[in-house]
Amino acid sequence: MNCCKLQAQQGDWQQRVDYKINVSLDDKAKTLTGEETIYYTNHSPDTLKFIWFHLWPNAYKNDQTAFSEQLLRNGNTTFYFADEAQRGYINQLNFKVNDEAANFISDSTRTDVARLMLPQPLAPKQTIVITTPFHEKLPYNFSRGGYEGETFQITQWYPKPAVYDSKGWHPMPYLDQGEFYSEFGDFDVTITVPQNYIIAASGNLQNEEALRKLKALGTQSPEVQDNYKLWQQSLRMQAIRERRPFDEVMPPAALAFKTLHYRLNNAHDFAWFASKLFLVQYDTVQLGKQVIDAFTFYNPWDKERWKNSLQYVKDGVHFYSDKLGEYPYDVVSAVLGKSSKEAGGMEYPTITLLEMSDAGKELDATLVHEVGHNWLYGILANNERDHAWMDEGMNTYYENRYINNKYVRTERKGFISKKLPDDEDTLLLHTLIKLHKNQPVDITSDSLTQMNYGLSVYSKGGMWMKQLEEKLGTALFDSSMHQYYNEWQFKHPYPADFKKSVEAASNINIDTLYQQLFTTCSLYPATKRQLKTTGLFNLKNTDKYNYISLTPAGGYNYYDGVMVGGLIHNYQLPLNNFNFLMASLYATQSKQWNGAARFSYSIFDERKWLEFAVSGMRYNINAFTQYNGDKLFFTLNRIVPSVKYRLYNKDLRATRRWTFLLKSYILNEESFGDFKTVTTTTDTFYVANKRSTTTNIAQLNISVSDNRKLYPYDASLTIDAGKSFMRAGFTGNYFFNYKKDGKGINARLFAGKFFYLQPKTLLSKGENDRYLLTLTGPHGYEDFTYSDYFIGRNGQEGGLSQQIMQRDGFFKVGTPLLNTPVGKTDNWLMALNIWGDIPDEINPLKVLPFKLPVQLFADIGTYSDAWSEDNNGGRFLFDAGIKISIIHSTFNVYLPLVYSKVFRDYYKTFYPEKRVAHTIAFSFNLQQLQPNKLNRNIPL
């Protein structure tokens, strides 16, 4: 009640902050120099002794800011590894209050937040004048503002008081995920730049001649504008010839300067953008008796994509004026920044910046969404950091309504396209809800995961508004939103204020619907789904249908040859609790039916995932050609029941998780039995027979992993136990990032111990040979749980015999033809594997016009036998060479170049010719295709 009372009282008073700013751009040094005068009026009932200030350019000062930490948490390392020249800051501040020096105290934990201590307390209804010079080093545009090439996006650039409202002060650091909250006031801004820069800015340009020229330029066709001609005739080819981005090839700055004067009343922010190559479009928007100037600014190379941008802006102004309330400003503008595959934008009063490469409907939707923010946050100025849905969710609703009214929905064409959802975001949201990994709509921006920020705030917030429309009816909903707009324009509404306004306007209680903003439940009740068959897969209407999918399937191994058949499964999104997959494959070489199946039941919770599963496989693992040419195939039947318990952090943003996995491998293997002698009149032959053995191996795996973007790691303890042995192995992996995204060095540490569960004899050692620890990456025979894919699992010679798996010591060289291979032990073993990308600074291959997936690797290890007195091979062994990885490191080829003497002697003895070819090894690592390895945001 107290919270709601405070929120409802927010309209009773509101602080006012007016600005007068003079600023100059040094485009070569990429700096701003300016003077700021602030008129701060205290309308609160409280006497203020200090004022919190935002110095958001300091968010780019170092890698220890809240901005930097959040980027890392969301998987972005570009700023963390940025050069010092790309970072930014604000300094040379000298605050005075009413011409009296004032103490300015930096916050101890936030470099971009500080307190201005007032020399004299500021009483209610009083106004003070705050002045300061400032100097700003502009950052590269990592987030919303800065520079890109020789274009400038000047946003969140001046010292700005934090909001003081009925809830108190709201100081906040700058964040990439999470927007703003600022006081209303008037802006009087002068901007000095080199003469040939075109400026797009908030508010109204006061220089009459400059405004006349800008409008005249904007009415010209883009093709005849001087900037387009300059780019087309010379700069375009220069950029292509020099292999430089277009925005880095610009005409030189003019030696003369110009000063432009802007005014903007009743706003809470001011932004401006500068380029020497802007193309301009201009027209007017008629709203009743009001005429609004409309501009778009974009780059010459984006002319075709943005040819309809001005019309989209005008359509947006008409739409929002009709649905919410008339646009109160005299100008509206849109600016295109860098082209990005991910459509996005950021709104500022009367102007918006877009960063996208789309055109047509997608551009229309994004432009209108950003133009709509002039109403939702620009005029209805909620606290975006704490209640982002009030502008983003509401605006998404209006964007969807605009698009649905303007464009006729067309059916997808193509076999695959027809199986995709009409609304991908809704499907992903319901998937997260099923996994208990979604978050409430009304929650602070920084508390949300990156995925939930989009799905909960934007998508679910928009769905909630749609439900409100359905509850009230469209006509009553529209009139209620008009009432909300009229009541709260140029103010700071809270969620309770919105609720109160809607209920008063509609005379309908929305308590139940309102409470859904604070829960993680679905907005729509679950319905009973019908079973339906489909081909391949289907993600369409999964709220109505439980699909049984039929799809062709195939496979290959050396013994079975090509395998063809079919697969039936029920995997879809959202995930079912019970999932199954069954495949039947006919082997064209062995002439037998093989197959695979998996059945699982999962229990999802916010902090855990419990899965009971059983899987089975059947295929051939060896073959033998009899004396008469007949082939004998040896089959594996494998059944694996398992229980997996995965534990997540209570904070969904955390990336660390624990997994406890218990498996039982029930293996029925066919192998060589006794040989029968067959004697003919001319010769004697041996005929191989098969025998079948069943083995049960229990496996316990305890692992912890953290797929954070910077220095991710995982560690696991695996214990395998059979009838006569037990082996324990610890594996730790750590990734050291380079500056370049995705590049770095991997380090893997393995330590293992082998135990006999029965008395150790020569016989028992031989029987347990395949279970022993090995310094070399195990071959197919040593993959005793059949967990990896081997093409020729039991090959003894040829290229297929050189396949290894990532386990144990994982050396790339070995001595498999020796009776006692080097590095194989029934005691203990330790190894360190390192592999990584060649740094660009020393990579001779970077001069190539294409990229080669070449890395370097090195291994060092030791084992118990190396420390015995009769060992002559050295206590520590090593190898190193070149690694080639493709398809997200699922297929890897290793070319050892240097290795220990014991390995050199082996290759000289057994392979005096073509030695290099016999040292090459390769591996498949299909674990790399797991969804959460392909995309770290997948919360499994």
Can you describe what's shown?
With 940 residues, the protein is α+β, with helices and mostly antiparallel strands. Among the domains are: 12-183, Immunoglobulin-like, CATH 2.60.40; 545-706, no CATH class; 738-940, no CATH class. It has 16 helices and 43 strands. The strands form seven sheets. The chain has a 17-stranded mixed sheet. Strands 1, 2, 4, 5, 6, 9, 15, 17 and 18 form a nine-stranded mixed sheet that branches. A five-stranded mixed sheet has the order 20-21-22-24-23. Strand 28 and strand 29 form a beta hairpin. Helix 6 crosses helix 7, helix 9 packs across helix 10 (474-488) and helix 10 packs across helix 11. The radius of gyration is 34 Å and the shape is elongated. The two termini are 39 Å apart.
* Mean pLDDT over the residues: 93
Percent of residues in beta strands: 35-45%
Low-confidence segments, given as residue ranges, are 1-9
Q: Could you say which structural class the secondary elements and strand pairing correspond to?
A: alpha+beta
Distance between the termini: 39 Å
How many helices does DSSP assign? 16
Radius of gyration: 34 Å
What is the global morphology?
A: elongated
Total strand segments: 43
Report on the biggest sheet: 17 strands, mixed
Helix content: 10-25%
InterPro entries: M1_LTA4H, Peptidase_M1_dom, Peptidase_M4/M1_CTD_sf
Binding site for Zn(2+): 369, 373, 392
Cofactor: Zn(2+)
Domain Peptidase M1 membrane alanine aminopeptidase: 319-515
